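On clarity, I found the account of how folds are encoded harder to follow than it need be. For illustration, here is how one protein appears when written out as sequence plus structure tokens.
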Amino acid sequence: MKRLAVIVPAHNEESLLPACLRALRACPSPVPAELIVVADACTDGTAAAARTAGAHVLTTNARNVGAARAAGAAYAMRAGTDGLWLATTDADSRVPRRWLNWQLTHARAGADLLLGTVRVDDWGRWPETLRTVYETAYGRATQPHVHGANLGFAATTYAETGGFPPVPVNEDRELIARFQAAGAHIATDPACPVTTSARPIARAPHGFSAHLATLAAGLQPT
């Protein structure tokens, strides 16, 4: 891989996006890397915050995370797909310093797609027992974890399989299904988790916050 692009979809994320972009900027990269923020249906200062951080900024009005990620990928591939690795994270998340090197290590080892894990930064707004319930279930999962906040893939394979579908939820799972159908090499590695928000009010419907809310509801006495 000779080039790398990181795509961050964002809907009204002016408060959390700067920390996300600082973490990305702190990642060393052995190849030229660009940072792309897709400000989707924003009514706040998300785009301005992204420009201040030096990111390429696209604006869309789809209010659709699948379409936003796809727009970012299309922009990243504007000069072609050869030698290009695409990575995605979320505006409420912070990647570790070695994240880009970790992505490229898997890419150079032959991965077409890389699945990473996440960890929660703050459980303070949830019931005290939720963290134990969540982390126990997370650790016992028999299927690979899928998070748009910690995902990477070869641009050539992405283009060949049709890319992210324009869906408001599970766009990452749909992408993986397309890679699987194409017989792509999918790598999973929990060794480089991305720190993500546990905020109760979600930006994406049926996303991570909704999952936590469902778990929390199960803890309430009936």
